[in-house]
Structure formats: C-alpha cells, structure tokens
Amino acid sequence: MLTIKNLSKQFDGVIAVENISISIKRGQTYGLVGESGSGKSTIGNITIGLLEPTSGTIKFKEKELWNKKGKFIRPPAGMMQIVFQDPQSSLDVRFTIKDIVTEPLRALPKQMQKEKFSNEYLVQLMRRVGMNEDHLNRYPHEFSGGQRQRIAIARAIITDPEFIILDEPTSALDVSVQAQILNLLKQLQKEMKLTYLFISHDMSVIRYMCDEIGVLYRGRLVEEGETEKLFLSPQEEYTKRLFSSLPRLSTVKEG
Amino acid sequence: MFLQIKNLSVTFNSIYGKTDVLEDVSLHVNKGEIIGIVGESGSGKSVTALSILGLLDRNAEITNGEIIYKDKNLLQLSEKEIQLLRGKEIGMIFQEPMTALNPTMKIGKQIANVIQKHQKVNKKEADRLTIAALKDVKINDPEEVAKKYPFQLSGGMRQRVVIALAMSAPPELVIADEPTTALDVTIQAEILKLMQELCEKKGTSIILITHDLGVVANICDRVYVMYGGKIVEEGNTKQVLMKSSHPYTRGLIESLPEGKSQDEALKVLHGESFNPRNRPQGCVFYSRCPIRTEKCLHEQPTIVEVNQDHKISCWEAEVYVDHQELV
Questions:
Q1: DSSP reduced 3-state for B129
Q2: For A118, which DSSP code?
Q3: Of B185, B222, B273, which has the smallest distance from its Cβ to A177's Cβ?
Q4: Average pLDDT over residues A119-142
Q5: Contacts of B259 in chain A (CB under 8 A)
Q6: DSSP per residue over A149-167, as a string?
Q7: Can you give the pTM of this predicted structure?
Q8: Which ipTM value was assigned to this complex?
Q9: Is A57 helix (H, G, I), strand (E, B) or coil?
C-alpha cells in the first residue's frame, strides 16, 4: 500500500528524519512509536503532502507521491485521509458538523458527490461512528473531546479511503473515552478494509492496535518488526529502554 | 495526621451561574508518604490541590470544609501567613515546567533566591546549596546548568530544575500536579524515580495528581480516585488497582489497552467525560454506571468500607467485592 524509501527531511539544516525506509501492507496497521522530536509526525505529514521531503521516495499504491521537482502528486481524491491528535483544533468552530464532515467531498467527482451528500448516506455515516443525525446541524463546541474525535473520523471515512494516517488519535482524550475510539477504529478497519499508519508515543496503545511497528529515535528507525515479537524481545538498547520506561499497572507498588 | 482535608466543597462562579466542582472531599496524608489523586478531566483533582495552598482563582468559593495542616486550618490563615508556608513548607510542582520558571532569570539565581529567602543564609552559602540542589536532582554539570536560562534547557531538564526549586527549602510536603505529563516516557521514568528518592531521603510527603494509573501503580502508597468532584474510591494502591470495587475505577482499568490481546475488543465505559454543569442529584457516576439502580438516581451514595484500607462510595458496593483481581 505504502512504500517509503530512504526518506530524509531537514528543517534549515536540522535533521528531522534520516534515511527511513518502511513498507505498509494492505489491510495492516503499521505503528510508528517514538518520543517527541523522533520524527514520527514528520513522516505522517510528508505522506499526506503537508511537508516536502528533502530526499527519498514515497510510493502509494505503486505511484510516487512526490515528483522530481518537489511537487506533491495527489493520489485519487479521498483515497488517503488523516485524523489528527487534537479534535479541539482540527475542527473549524464556525462550521456545522455537516459542513465539516462533507468538506472532503468537494474534491470528489460530481457523480460521487451527489451520492454522498445524500441525507441517507450522511445519517448512515454518523451512526457508523457512534453519533446520530441530530448532531449534523450542530457546532463543534457543543461536543466533548471524544465526540469531536468521532466527527474527525467521520470526515476521514466519508470518501471511502483505503489508507488513513492516525496521528496520536487518542492522546488528547480521557482514558475512559480512549477505549471507545480504539474500538471504533478497529471496527472500521474490519468493515472498510482500511490500512492504517498509526502514530503514537503510547506503547500500550501501539501494542494493542498494530501488526507491525517501527521504533523511531532522533529521526532514525532504530528497530522494526512484528509487534509481539518486538515487545517480547527488543534488540536495540533504545527500544529496551523505551519499553521498560512505560509505567505499568502490573508492576504495582507493594505497600 | 500530617495533612487532613475534611469535607471540602468548592463552587465556581461564572457567567453560567454557580457550578459545584468539589463536593465533600476528605483525604489525608501521613508524614513521608506518597499519595496519588487520580481522575480524568473535570474530576476535581487539580482544584483539590490548588485549594490546599490557597491558589484557587478568584471566582472560586470554598463553601464548606477545612484543611488541617499541623493543627492549623489553612483556610483561616491570612494571605501573609499562607505565603510563609508556600514554597517553604509546602512546595508545588506543576505540569508545564516552562511556565513555572522565570524566563528572564538564570537557573542558578532563581534557586538561590528561594534558598536565601527560606533558609536565611548568605549569598555564598545559597550558591553552594543551589549547586547541591541541582546535583540532588541528578543534573550532571550543575555549575553549567546554573548559568543557563530556562529556554536553553530541554523539557526534562527544566522539570528537574522545577523539582530542585520545589525541594530546595526543603519542604515537608510537595504537591505535584501532573509533573510528568508533558514529558517523554523515558524521562518520566527518571523524574518519578527522582521524586521517590527525594521522598525517602528527606522524609517529604508527596501528593501526586495524575490521570495515569500506571504512574500511580508505580510510586504511590495510597490512592484516591476522583470522579465528578467527589472521591469515589480510596485506599492502599494495590487494593484499589487490583481489587477495584467501584464501577468507575474498575471500568477505567478494564478500558486500558495494557495487557489486552489484539483480537479482544476493549471494555468500554459508555458515555462522555463528566460535565460539572450537569451535576446529577444522585450518584455522580450514574449516567455511565453499568450497575446503577433506581436508588442511585436519587440519592448520593455513602462511603462503605470494603476493609480497613479500602473504601468506596457506592450503593452497590457488594457487587465487585469478591470479584477476581484485575491486574
């Protein structure tokens, strides 16, 4: 589905991402895990076309995303989508939920637009993400964090994408709401045969969600592999340190 | 008892009218103990902490209760008297280290000022203690760091400086409000270890406020679980986490992805985070509770002892008592 080869990105000489190669298979969830400044969001942003790579190639379904002149070649409209971390800032406060959710449709061919702007389709879409049709005419401020993230997800899936980048989709949410969103993402993946690039700093979320993971440290991919294998026997020093730093319930203090 | 909060209630006045944010909160801290206050947004955990030091905003009103610290009711002290406690006897560590430091003053000077003020030593001695304080928080080159400004340090280093500041008096109690939430996990682990060491070495008591049950599990002796401005479960950390008897705590732990296999769906607490503007008449957790009854809708639950070290506030207390261990 997605093949990244020797990708590098520098910001004014500062290296953000260095020589990264990963490939994501169809229907899979690939997790990028790392701490702040490790370059995980930069990779997501280059893939969706928000940042230009310094060197390297990204192929989406066998087609190059960035041409030689540094121009982003948009994949067929709506094929690739993104859900950001903070639903507070990723939804325009002056738009109704209907406007927000249907905005990506403007990029689609006329015929498909017609079909998807239909009330029936929208009602179905809202239910699919656990909301209902009454919500369509309201504004973002009327919703809680979890509901806003559902709205952001509805906006991402309205175009029937094949690939979604999830950039810390639950990091701004309360724990009790996080589980709802993770379940929803898994369910949608099954129903719509989605491929995910899941970016997170939370190891327990990554372990639960991903088939394969890549561990980033200061812009380099230090280790990569099948999730369980990697968690059970990390090879690199940094990966070991990262995994053992996670405060776990199972190591509860005796008292 | 070293610090005791008794039946504390706090109301915020705003353009929407009065909103109750804390209701009848009671807790205590023993000498040299680390207690955790855990809860999600709107649970009242930070308000509880801020009220101890009289740091609540002006629109907040304490409607009931007392905060007894070494036989004095802190709520009755004058601003001047409480100012003497702040920083000296009771230190505070906030979530965002950048806002807690003065951006225009060198690190060394900031710490030396505090030491000079609280310990009545001359400048030279204060400088020496400053370097010692920075060493205490495991900063390798304290002389160099002391000459720097906050913006020249990383987040983890800044939080160490904030801890050094809070511990420099040295205080008898430290209130840490999400001290590691803004930090990366590897740094979080170091900072938590550091706080634990300082607590053991200097006998400082710590109130740790967090939303992270993993953090609580690792360093707290006892824990209070808050929801909707009330304490719903309290006790020995191991008991509260492994044998949670309140449906909220239980639901919270079961909804964590930790230790779950990929093909099992996460158990979910239905509904949304608590909104203090819609405070119910009965139990605060009613709308999301899986075991609610008619009684819970109308009457606030009383506190029930599961055993000597473990209490919950629930009408259906017996439901989970003999349930299997969670972790």
A1: helix
A2: S
A3: B273
A4: 92
A5: 204, 249-250
A6: HHHHHHHHHTT--SEEEEE
A7: 0.88
A8: 0.83
A9: strand
